[in-house]
From TrEMBL:
Recorded superkingdom: Bacteria
Gene name as annotated: hutC
Alphabetical list of InterPro entries matching this protein: Bact_HTH_transcr_reg, Chorismate_lyase_/UTRA_dom_sf, His_ut_repres, Tscrpt_reg_HTH_GntR, UTRA, WH-like_DNA-bd_sf, WH_DNA-bd_sf
HTH gntR-type domain mapped to chain residues: 9-77
Cited Pfam families: GntR, UTRA
GO molecular function: DNA binding; DNA-binding transcription factor activity
GO process annotations (BP): L-histidine metabolic process; negative regulation of DNA-templated transcription
PROSITE patterns: HTH_GNTR
Protein name: Histidine utilization repressor
SMART domains: HTH_GNTR (SM00345), UTRA (SM00866)
Amino acid sequence: MIKESAPRASLHDRIRSDLEGKILSGAWPPGHRIPTEQELRTEYGCSRMTVNKVMTQLANAGLVLRRRKTGSIVMPQQSQNAVLEIKDIKDEVTAQGGAYRHEVVTRTLRRASAVETLELGIEPGTRVLELTCLHYADEAPFCLEERVINLAVAPDAEAESFAELAPGVWLLRHIPWSEAEHMIAAVGATARVARLLDLSAGTPCLVMERRTWRQGETVTEVRLTYPGAANRLSARFAPSTT
């Protein structure tokens, strides 16, 4: 009995590892159609129950979206969730009834600084793309985005203009992430930030700093600055069951 059950457990782990690896490595990008359960059964020579269990676990982990008629796909990563949900800035604007647009203010290809090397855990000399973007609501500055992208993880970003898709949305569609962290603070606008957001220097602003990783490698670090008087963050949650 022990000799018969061990291989089944090992096969289950191998199937999950294979599928998870393809998703997190980017080989299967968000929206990619995953082989059907029948195709996986044939490929691995296993039972329907084993494949179904793997797919259920991947779905529970937020990596796979299961659909009855069209088949399973890699989960489209349209938002990031931690203490509260972070939505696409365009969705934030349109939800308030505003007309949205964004523009890339600055775009710089360079080597990571010594500080970034330490803070982001990347190799010295790593090439990064630094972006400054403004997001508008009805032609009024809504959010300032200051972002650094690790080109070792997201090399296609170097050739992307981000004219059609804002950097955050482009990354979510092209580079699956496995871990995220964000911090929120209230700060006074510096002279530069005030100029870009059309505020007075020192005006209270809501600042969100976020980092995302893919299998331990830093994908991006972003600082989002919102005029404090016009924005608020909220979350609805339930008590923990543990």
